[in-house]
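Quick one - first record:
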Amino acid sequence: KVVTIAKSKKFRDHHGKVLLEGHRLIKDALEAGAVPQTLFFSTVGHLKLLPEAEIKQASLVKVKFEDIKTWSDLVAPQGLLGIFSKPDPARMSYPAAQLANSLPLLLICDNIRDPGNLGTILRSAAGAGCEKVLLTKGCVDPWEPKVLRAGMGAHFRVPIVPSLDWESVPTHLPAGIQVCVADNNDDPGDSSLPRGAGSAPGKSSPKAAPEHEDEEGAELAAQHYYEDWARAPVAVVVGGETHGLSAAALRLAASTGGRRLVIPVVPGMDSLNSAIAAGIVLFEGKRQLLWRHRQEDDRQELPVPG
């Protein structure tokens, strides 16, 4: 049963259960309010590392370490596994430090199918202080074991809304949001894109921004990712490894006046993978939002003439 939960998305969805492994992930889950059903441990010492009050609501099952090694797909299992009710992001209690540093910055994942990439992207989103992460249908299950390992606890630090169709994505976005796309499938060496970046976000020239049009007619102005684009609230779409951005993502961005954010790489090199691109664009978005917030604070502190 444990192996089935870990390996089968259908089973996880049907029974509403997820498998978590290791002290850190299980401790993060418990502190965020995830509901444990069963904890498997090889020694009592493993339980002493967890919050006592939270584990009382779970069935505690001592098993042989060899059994855990059989169930686990880790090279070096820790001897602690937990079956939890699938967490509802609306009911999670995220860490106070995470909430205090949250920004009006959202991430939309478009057909991210590689588990390691999605986990790394979620970790970057939590690190950048994203308010929320939306996963469209076609993305790998965020509760797949490889995603959980790569996420390093991000699942319990930032709300993750999975399995959305594009028609429902706008209902999860705040009013007035601008949606930009990180497009790795374009030539970043286009000479019409202005170069150079200062310590503060610069403004790109509208005349120099080339247009991108998908098969449905959606037009997006393109610019380098380090130029001025992040105004609260803002969302970034990151496309999948194989097919890149979908037409629906481009249409959503165009409908909000969004832009196509290009990450320049040395000519002749393949584009960056989705996890690296997401990290670069999200942390640049964070930099711009914080810079703009400081500018607004400075203006408010100026003395009123007369």
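second record:
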Amino acid sequence: MRFIKEIEKIEGKKIIVRVDFNTPIKNGKVLDNSRIQSSIPTIKYLSEKGAKVIIISHLGRPKGRIDENLRLDNVVGELSDLLGKKVNKFPNYFDEEVKNGVDKMQNGEVIMLENIRFSPNEDGNKGTLAKDLASLADIFVLDGFSVAHRTDASVVGIPKFIPSYVGFLVEKELKNLNKVLENPEDPFVVVLGGAKSETKVPLIEGLSEIADLFLVGGAVANSFLKKLGYGVGNSLNSDFESEKIMSLIEQKNIILPVDLVVGEKDGSRNNVVNVEENPHSICLGSNVILDIGPKTRELFANKLQNAK
């Protein structure tokens, strides 16, 4: 793995930077710009060194289709403000306009492509998308740690065609992760959530040798509860097979929610349901599990008080 400061002769190079600017937006306003801020050091460094910086990001889950509500216009405005310079955005992620625009870039200029998940070939690295994107640049830099695990064209595909490096954000996260894994302090508590148990189960299995406790919420908790025999209705969940996980739950190394907020998918008509010791139906009909409940929040907070 190579780091960004190892790039030689940056000036004049066209450099794709894959970031994660998947930020909450309401009424045209970015509500939380922390993800954008986290990649500013990498973008500034390259721009100030005279690179031609091409930003690639996603927003939401358009599932390979154009969704006018998920264009990156508001994101690029926020990026421009944080950089203190104008960042232009193309209305597409790859076409003749993009190619011509990149060819005309000046040293130090920063541009952004449209939401990469508008492409049906992004998820799973299909078709020629990765090769097409790679043709725009000389170098690829990954600065989106939160997407580093994905098999998307803009994450794992582009590096197959051009030299690749990691940016300051990914370098920082890797150093922190190595510190935790190589010399963890006790008690070592892991907080996990997310949508896909298939990506979290191997993580828990791998960390189980050094972690003291796992606090699990989100759809991953739904999946674990379903495996234990609880009814989760139409709540987001996924199947998995792992004797290790079931053993950790039985040994109380994995702490699951003791109460859950249940309601309609839009969040309406919600109420709190206690998770009893014996399996039962947590939600019925059109209701789904929306979040952990107040007792669980208190339980998790108490477990985290002495965590290192």
